[in-house]
Fold:
Amino acid sequence: MQPTDAMVREMVRKRHRRRRTLLVSLVAAVVVVAAALVGAGLVRANNTEPGEAPARVPAEATDDKAGLAASTGAIRIDLYLDYLCPECRNTEKALAAELETLKAAGDVSVVYHPVTFLDGRSSPEGYSTRAASAAACAADQGRFEEYSAVLFDQQPPEGGPGLSEAQLIAAGEEAGITDEGFAKCVQEARYTPWVTYVSDAAASRKVALTPTVMVDGDRIEVTGPDAAASLTRAVREARG
Structure:
């Protein structure tokens, strides 16, 4: 039987419906995968060129202004952390003692990169940026690592507002900061442009997940119970 015009139009409509259904299914699958990554504390960064660094950067900023140097030495250790990332909290605690030992040896340059990949996981958005800016204020007081440890100890759950401005300031007291200038720095969100630059610089270097730890530019595995041992082994190999 020769198909009529009505039959042809109906077949075309059915094909279009099938295509739309397939497209919607594919989009939904991508959303599910992305949500799973974020829920694990791991999120893809935007592959954005960082542009020019802001004029105002915290004390201890590296020469390229994309991180904070906690020590100097021939072997470089880079740590990319987000204050809302649960696995970053675990990594900070797992590596803290070993990092102190390595710094005492005098041959490692430990560089922290407080990134803001999880800004969208707080409500309202932006806790990662607020926390990282406050941590940069702590760097001006020479207490960045101590302050970071307090922030991770008090890490809020994803989906909430995060620590308030008053709580971020109080965290400074727990970290041993007594200068009144710290509170003003936090209230001004003084280093928001800088932490945005740090995050964009990290993304341009293809750092897409937090936590990310590198030794002389090579990424190492830092999740799980062997995190400290992995760091020790990588530094030993870098020493030759």
Remarks:
- The mean pLDDT is 86.
- Strands lie at 68-69, 75-81, 108-114, 212-215, 218-220.
- The longest strand covers residues 75-81.
- The two ends are 81 Å apart (CA to CA).
